[in-house]
Each structure stands twice: as C-alpha cells, then as structure tokens.
Write a structure and sequence with these properties.
CATH architecture of the domain at 4-119: 3-Layer(aba) Sandwich
Protein name: GNAT family N-acetyltransferase
Strand order of the largest sheet: 1-2-3-4-5-7-6
Number of helices: 5
Pfam families: Acetyltransf_3
Distance between the termini: 33 Å
Order of helices and strands: EHHHEEEHEHEE
Strand content: 25-35%
Largest sheet: 7 strands, mixed
Domain N-acetyltransferase: 4-161
Structural class: alpha+beta
C-alpha cells in the first residue's frame, strides 16, 4: 500500500529537489522566483532557509521526496488569508497525490492557524491544476486578465479560493 506523508525538508532531499526542479514540465507553471536551472546550492538554500515555515512541507510517497505543498500566510489586513502552492514530480501526476497532500496541509491550516481563506492563482493554460483545486473544494473567484507574465507572454490568472469550514 502506498503512503503519502508530509514532513519538513531535510539535507538528504537536495539531490531529488535538483532532479525534480530541473524538469521543465514540473516548473513551467511555478513562480519564476524558483531558479532555472536549479542547482544543488539552490536546494541547500531551500532546505536550510526557504522552507523554514510550519506551512511548507515536503510530500513523501513511499519514503521518497516527490513534491512540495505550502500555504503562505498573508500579512497585515490579509493575515487571515493564505496562498496555496504545490508541485509534484512528473511521474506521480494524475494519481490523486497532490489532492491528498494539499488536503492534509489544509486540514492543519484550518485547525491550527487563524487562516480563514486559502487561495491559489492558476495560469489559464493549466487545466490540470484547476481540476486539483476543484477536487479540493475550491471555487473560482475571478479571472484576472493578462495578470501573469512568463516566457515573454501575458496570461490570464484564474483565482480560486476555499473558505474555512464552519463547525
């Protein structure tokens, strides 16, 4: 039986981070703040500094690093909102792993933080990510026209959100 768990990033993840984040299929829709090409030094920085938040987790499948899921809390008047992000090694796509990992993190976010709304932006030509969000219960709030600029092109950004369940 395959087991999905979340944990903090550790030193031994560096080689796998470099392999996954140098796959252009994985990174094509990620933030351009992720270096390309992705070096061992980039992985070291991520492990030791960049991922040091209770809401950034390595996705582990059968004891192997295969991805990342995170919620970045807002600030000031937006401190009750957080932005969801995720990536997964290509060979694990379309198996429900991202939905499972994100739902595990969202459960923590809504039960252990003051965050009441989680949102995500998705590039218009990434329908697979939109389906992930919809499977998680997110609803589309808006389409922001020409809001993203990547690889010399403007793209519409689809904004999705999920509100904390009322108990």
């Amino acid at each position: 039986m395959s087991v999905i768990t979340l944990r903090d990033f550790v030193e031994s993840d560096a080689k796998q981070l470099v392999a996954i984040l140098n796959d252009m299929d994985v990174t094509q829709y990620l933030s351009t703040k992720i270096p390309s090409p992705y070096s061992y030094e980039d992985a070291q920085w991520w492990i030791n500094e960049g991922s040091q938040s209770q809401l950034i987790k390595a996705v582990i499948f059968n004891d192997k690093l295969i991805g990342c899921v995170s919620v970045h809390p807002g600030e000031f008047e937006f401190d009750r909102s957080g932005e969801l992000g995720y990536w997964l090694a290509k060979e694990y796509w379309r198996q429900g792993i991202t939905v499972k990992a994100a739902s595990m993190l969202l459960e923590t976010v809504f039960s252990k933080t003051k965050i009441a709304r989680v949102f995500a932006y998705v590039c218009e030509d990434n329908p697979a990510s939109m389906k992930v969000l919809q499977r998680l219960g997110f609803e589309q709030d808006a389409v922001l026209k020409n809001a993203m600029f990547k690889k010399g092109h403007l793209f519409n950004a689809h904004l999705f959100s999920l509100l904390k369940p009322k108990n």
